[in-house]
Each structure stands twice: as structure tokens, then as C-alpha cells.
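Example record for the data management plan.
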Amino acid sequence: MKKNITINMFGQLYAIDEDAFELLNRYLDSMKRYFSDKEGGEEIADDIEHRVAELLWQQKEEGTMAISIEVIKEIIGKIGNPTEIDSQEENGGQEEQTAAEDYEEAVEVEEDKPDNSLFGWLKGRYLYRDPNDKVLGGVCSGMAQFTGKGTSLGWRLGVILAIFILAGMGKLIHLELVWTGWLLYMILWFLIPLPKTPEDRLRMRGQSVTPENINEEIINESVKASTEGRHGNRRGNGCLPLLLKLVAVVCLLPFFILVGIGMLGIIALLIAVLGLSATMFPYFATESMTWFPNYLTDHAGTIFTAIISTMAIIAIPIYCIVRALRGNGKPMSAQGTVACILLWILSIVLAIVSMTSVAMTGSKAERDYYDLHHSRHDNEPDTTPYEPLPTDSSSVDTIGWQG
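Corresponding structural encoding:
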């Protein structure tokens, strides 16, 4: 049993199954998006909708009581390329032939000469996460689709190998890089969007966005959705996806712990810069920290850079997470994704350099103050009053005579 609804197209009512309506609605929306940036695109999209209405009316005339999804697929197949809509169906005159030629000019895809350069290869390709072949977000499968090289399994094995290699290199240079690879993967997970339209799915695979390809993609996606609805998504029933998701949760915990530590560090630095340390924390008011105000004045730029870069390290992933969780938001463009990644990497570099400088210069300032303070006390003359030895008899008896 299927849910059935009634739609109104150009004054005519049609009973249509809900899944058929969703397919038809996606198709018309895709056509409108495709022709929106072309000359005369609104008229072409309107003509396509009229053509769909005509074919639906024919189905109604033939006695079809409810439009099924198979009928919608057949209609999409009949329309095919909108440039091939039979404009001569009614009058067959020169005017209709001219309209058909206008359609062809409007949707003609410019085919440039083959470009073997990197920019030519990247033209028309967009990086998305693949929702149809995902285990942990679909990043690796999206990279496989984007490059067109290798399989998603090969990319997953390569990423795992790279994470272990990075951790091993960290041990050689005495740095803890165990979680760095996982952290980078999580950032990519949040930055790279999912394809939300048929056009996005075509761009993900590097295919040309043409009406024929859009039609084929819509139909294939509908068939896949109906098949998964009947039989369930068997890819997610194994133990391996569940195990990998548990690993992802375990890997996310240190990330959020580091974020919390970073937030505490930012708060501490802000308190110090604002000069609240001496009033809020008694330890900072002691003589051992009297060098601190002068140090803040001399190195304010470096401290400010450390604070801003640390805030950016935390704020950029949070922004990307919020943007990704918004269901109705547009996916981030390729330029925006690259800009966020580069800005985040730059923030990490600035934070490491500035914090290292703050730590080294702060330690040196404290040592210099300590050396200066104690050397000054060592060079001062001893002003303790002279006390002569006692000469009374009791003291003499206590000390005794040496002879």
C-alpha cells in the first residue's frame, strides 16, 4: 500500500503516489537549477513543466487513475534532453523549429580543447563526501570519486597507513603525533560537505552537468532509494562498520578534551593580558611575579598572536561543524573549503611559534629577574649589629678555658 496525494498542474488535478511526486519534484527542481543561469532559462524550464503536464494528461486520458513512479520514470525518459522536445508537435512550422534551435543554443555544453594540466583536470570536479559508500563520514570514498583513482577501500587503507607513519615519525623527533592524523581526518569530515542535489553528485564524479545526465542520475537515485527501502541497507549491518564507528568515537574524545584544555588556556591568557591576575590570584601578586607586568608590555604582540591563533584553531572547526549540521544550508564551496583548511593550518603554525616564543621569553625574563634580584642582595653590605662575646663567669664556665 502506498500513500497517494493530489497535485495541481496548470489547473488540472492528478492523483500521484508520494514517491512518484518526490521524483517528479526533484526532476523539475533540477531542471530549474540547471537552466537558471542560461539565457531564456526560465522559459525553457516552464516549457519542460508544460511538457510534463501534457504527458500526465495523456496518462489520465488513457485511464490511469494514479500516477506511479514507473510512469514518472517513463515521462522523464520521453523528455530526455530538453533540446529534443518535439516543438513541432502542434503546428510543425518554422516558428517551432526556431524555438527548438534556441533550446539547443541555451543548453549547449561548451567543449574546450583537452587540457592535460592540473587546472584542466580539476575543472568541473568538486570534492564531496560520498554518502553511498561511507564508513566514517565518506571522506575516503569521496577522495576516490574526486580523483577517479583507486577504490574507496584502497584510500581507507592508505589513510590508516599514513596515520601510523605520522605517529612513527613523531616518535623519531620526540613529538606526540599519535592523534594528529585522526584529528586531521575529523577536520576533513566536518569541512567536506555531502552532495545534496543530482548536480552535486555528478560534479563529485567529474561528470558533465547536462540534462541527460541529470535525468539519469535522478532515476538511478530513485531506484536505489526504493531498493534500499525494501531490503534495507545491508552495508551497515556488519561488525566492521560498527567497530570503525566505535573507533571514531574513541578518537573524538581526545579531540574534545584538547579543545577544552585550549579553552582553559585562552581564558588564562586573557586574564593575564587584562591585568586581572594580581587581584584574582594571590600567587601572581607575590614578589616572584613582579617581572610579569613588564614582560606583558614588552611582548604584547606575541601574546596577542598566541591568543588569536588558539581561538582560530578552536573556532574554525566549530564553525564547520555547525554549518555541516544545518540541514537546510548550502554546502560550502570548494574555494571556501580550501580557505578554511589553509586558515586552520596557518593558525596551528602561528600558535606553535608564538606559544613557543612566549614560553621561552617568559622563562628567560623570570630567570633574569631572579638573577638580578639575588645578585643585588648578595652584593649589599652586612648591616647586622656586632655582638661581643659574653664575659661573665657563667659564660666562661660554660665555654671553658683552652690551654
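Summary line stored alongside the record: The chain has three domains: 4-107, 120-206, 251-376.
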